[in-house]
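Worked example 3 (structure in, sequence out).
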């Protein structure tokens, strides 16, 4: 029996440098974006993943070679309103501003907030 998907928001911390180890420095930022998309697909069980422009700018702030070590993101699974869409849900990956990563765990965000 397969569980039906519902709209959901999850906040988690992603270590960007872990995913770009053993790659050429000129490919660090594009590889980090690909890794973010892959993690969103795995966590939210959707194939259609969209990166928020603010998150893209945050990854590219130090240039293509040097990435921020960690970044806090929100995976937001939404219902697809397009009639022609093959997938019923899509995921938007958004940046969550934070100054300190200490003690932050993966948590489900309530719809009330």
């Amino acid at each position: 029996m397969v569980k039906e998907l519902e709209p959901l928001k999850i906040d988690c911390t992603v270590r960007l440098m872990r995913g770009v180890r053993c790659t050429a420095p000129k490919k660090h930022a594009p590889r980090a974006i690909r890794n973010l998309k892959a993690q969103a697909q795995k966590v939210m069980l959707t194939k259609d993943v969209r990166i928020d422009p603010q998150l893209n700018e945050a990854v590219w702030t130090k240039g293509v070679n040097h990435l921020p070590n960690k970044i806090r993101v929100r995976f937001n699974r939404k219902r697809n309103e397009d009639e022609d869409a093959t997938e019923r849900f899509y995921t938007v990956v958004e940046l969550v501003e934070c100054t300190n990563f200490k003690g932050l765990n993966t948590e489900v965000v309530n719809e009330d907030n």
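Notes: The chain is about 25% helix and 25% strand. The first strand starts at residue 8 and ends at 15.
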